[in-house]
Design goal:
By secondary structure, this protein is α/β, with parallel strands linked by helices. The protein has 28 helices and 20 strands.
């Protein structure tokens, strides 16, 4: 009898193909190694050794040979295109309706994605398993199937635990399958996968760079003394056992580098394999990743988010992004949490590499309240059963710890800062006051009284209206999400240039919230439209950030005459306004922040899982998991439409190249740097305007649709139109 094969090579005889037994054992061993950190070694091995067992039928071997133009003794068994993934799932389910069912999801979905248990009018797992398994003629010894779960069931959370474990085993399987298949079919690509520096080497690099930074800092400056205090607390806490920690530090207190120091020391002591830094906004992720590269080296840091573009020759980065096989990952809330509810192989492949890591959540309060409970469940499960140490790192720690009033919260092991009130008092560089109601023109007039000032508002229209009321000048700058990322980056560079003490140029900035969380700018005065206390505190973090002014600088909070904000901003603002009289001048103090979040969470607890994700998870206690349905979870459910802004030379070149390539994904990813999100009604306005232009002049795709300092414009030789 001829050999059974897993993969063929085009133009090569079967003797050079990959034997099925070799592939199964390679994948089984890899998947077992990937699952070992969370106790799933036996489960990973079973998934791997069985995942392609459906290729052990004579019909599938006949199909493989036909695809390669080979006629032999298998040919007579030819029967269409057999579903090998479903066959493996059926065989395991026939052996065990408990463990076999969990593994069946992984096997049935290892190409097309994790399925639902049941669906109306669709081929779900239940229907696939109802078909008797085909006869496997491939001779191999089936190892004993494990029935023991590697975690202790936790009451009503068991359904969530079960679907989470299924997804993690799936991750181990698909990554192992991809890697072994790649090693056989594309050995050159496999060889490009990098060998990264060990945590011990990163630890050495970090402290070498950090000591150099210290040498150039003024040790007598108060802000530097407080940063040293924060660092010292982080170094002490790094020796503690793995768990869930909070790091509550005012903006400008050095929490980014201090948290990295904690993570490196903790990883060094406890054998953690990587550090994952999760950031809420793409507007600051590039800034933080740049700092990490400076401290650790380019070859240690993977930056994985929608705006990051790599050089086509940077194979190390491209391949690491597939499975997060790098020692330091910098990513977004969206990329992180969406992946833990995803069902596609490409999104789930990296998940197993989160186990036995340190995950730092920067500005955790930025998680949308309507998504909070599903996100907290992910954090709980990773910390409880997957060897993850979690660090919640923020200037405005929300009330997310478990309590009688909030049982869904996290059980925090410890706050790292030994005296949070004292740290906030010592780093107090601003006073925050509510100055009443102002219209857009009045706000613009107030801003013009300052040489350098930042104004942050809640909507694009508010920002535009205030900016439009200011005199036209290079000294006045507008920032908006209507500017594509490359454009915003240039604007931020110009803002920082003007603010540098050696330049000290006039700089009045009107911005939406994109500038708030972590953007490294330092203004002597800030205005903030009324919003949640956390947003006000973030805006205050752009004021006197580096402590260059010895007396506190003023953060002026104002309201518009008519509150036209959406319900989210209204509720947050209402919760904050109740606290203004009691905490006048000190809106950013921990007591005020705590009271705000308790009030705000109390109002919104019923909205903390608006998609009903956890209810679906609870139904999975018998292994009947709607994994495809759970993938509806999205941190951001955008109602906007992406529009490419093709006026830069590089953007025009990329757009033109779309016509000449079959696979457009790589080009479209690069074009994300030149993309803005607009609402559908704005797109319709643009289309309507274009239809009124002279025939033959315009099509939307080739129009110069772009964002500048005043908003979104469409221009042509015949004129221009503005869309606010």
């Amino acid at each position: 009898m001829n050999e059974y094969y897993a993969h063929s090579l085009a133009g090569e005889p079967p003797e050079k193909w990959q034997p099925l037994e070799e592939h199964l054992r390679n994948v089984a061993n890899l998947a077992a190694r990937f699952a070992r950190p969370f106790g799933g070694k036996d489960w990973g091995y079973q998934a791997g050794i069985n995942h392609d067992i459906g290729k052990g039928t004579k019909a599938w071997q006949a199909y493989l040979r036909k695809a390669n133009g080979i006629v032999d003794e298998f040919t007579k068994f030819l029967d269409g295109h057999p579903n090998h993934a479903a066959e493996g799932a059926r065989m395991l389910y026939a052996r065990s309706q408990q463990a076999g069912k969990i593994l069946a999801y992984c096997l049935a979905g290892h190409h097309g994605g994790l399925p639902n248990w049941h669906d109306i009018g669709r081929a779900a797992l239940r229907e696939k398993l109802a078909v008797p398994p085909a006869k496997i003629s491939f001779p191999y010894v089936q190892p004993k199937l494990t029935e023991t779960l590697p975690f202790v069931p936790d009451g009503e959370r068991f359904g969530f635990q079960l679907q989470f474990f299924t997804r993690m085993i799936f991750s181990c399987l698909v990554d192992a399958d991809f890697l072994d298949t790649e090693r056989f079919l594309d050995p050159q690509r496999a060889e490009r996968r990098a060998v990264y520096p060990e945590i011990t080497e990163l630890h050495r690099r970090f402290w070498k760079e950090f000591d150099a930074l210290r040498a150039g800092a003024d040790p007598e400056l108060n802000v530097n003394k407080q940063r040293e205090s924060v660092l010292a607390d982080c170094q002490v806490a790094a020796g503690n056992k793995p768990g869930i920690y909070t790091l509550t530090v005012p903006t400008g207190g050095g929490k980014t580098l201090a948290s990295l120091a904690f993570a490196l020391n903790h990883a060094f002591k406890h054998g953690k394999k990587r550090i994952i830094y999760v950031i809420p906004f793409t507007s600051i992720i590039e800034q933080n990743a740049r700092v990490f590269r400076q401290m650790l080296g380019d070859n240690a840091v993977l930056e994985h988010h929608c705006n990051f573009l790599t050089d086509d020759k940077d194979w190390r980065h491209k391949l690491a992004a597939e499975n997060w096989d790098a020692p330091v990952i910098v990513t977004t809330n969206v990329q992180f949490f969406d992946s833990f509810y995803a069902n596609r192989t490409s999104r789930c492949r990296k998940l197993h590499n989160v186990a036995n890591s340190i995950v730092i959540f920067d500005e955790v309060q930025a998680i949308p309240v309507e998504k909070l409970k599903p996100c907290l469940e992910v954090i709980k499960e990773l910390s409880a059963n997957y060897g993850v140490t979690t660090l919640l790192c923020t200037a405005t720690q929300p009330a997310i710890s478990s309590s009688e009033n909030f049982p869904a919260g996290l059980r925090i092991d410890s706050e790292i800062i030994r005296d949070v009130p004292a740290l906030f008092a010592n780093l107090k560089r601003t006073e925050e006051h509510f100055i009443g109601t102002l219209n857009e023109t009045e706000v613009a007039a107030r801003l013009m009284e300052h040489n350098q000032v930042l104004c942050v508002v809640n909507t694009r229209k508010q920002a535009l209206d205030i900016f439009s009321a200011m005199p036209e000048s290079d000294e006045n700058i507008h920032l908006s999400a209507l500017m594509h990322p490359a454009h915003r980056s240039k604007k931020l560079e110009e803002i920082r240039r003007r603010l540098r003490p050696e330049n000290n140029l006039p700089c009045r900035v009107v911005s939406t919230q994109l500038i708030e969380a972590g953007v490294d700018v330092d203004f002597p005065a800030v205005f903030r439209a009324v919003a949640g206390i956390d947003s006000i505190a973030q805006a205050a973090g752009r004021c006197n950030r580096n402590g260059l002014h010895t007396t506190p600088c003023l953060v002026s909070v104002f309201a518009f005459p008519e509150n036209r904000d959406c319900s989210f901003f209204k509720q947050a603002a209402q919760a904050a306004e109740k606290l203004f009289p009691r905490f006048a001048g000190r809106f950013t103090e921990p007591e005020c922040v705590r009271d705000y979040f308790e009030e705000y969470f109390w109002r919104n607890e019923q909205r903390m899982d608006m998609d009903g994700i956890l209810a679906d998870c609870r139904k999975a206690v018998m292994g009947e998991i709607q994994l495809k349905d759970l993938a509806r979870f999205q941190m951001i459910q955008s109602a906007t439409v992406p529009v490419i802004i093709a006026i830069d030379e590089e953007a025009v070149r990329l757009v033109n190249s779309l016509e000449h390539v079959e696979h457009k994904g790589g080009i479209l990813r690069k074009l994300q740097q030149y993309t803005v999100q607009i609402y559908p009604f704005q797109l319709e306005e643009i289309r309507d305007w274009l239809e009124n232009q002279p025939p033959g002049v315009w099509v939307l795709r080739s129009a110069e649709l772009y964002s500048d300092t005043t908003g979104l414009k469409c221009t042509s030789p015949q004129g221009e139109a503005f869309f606010g």
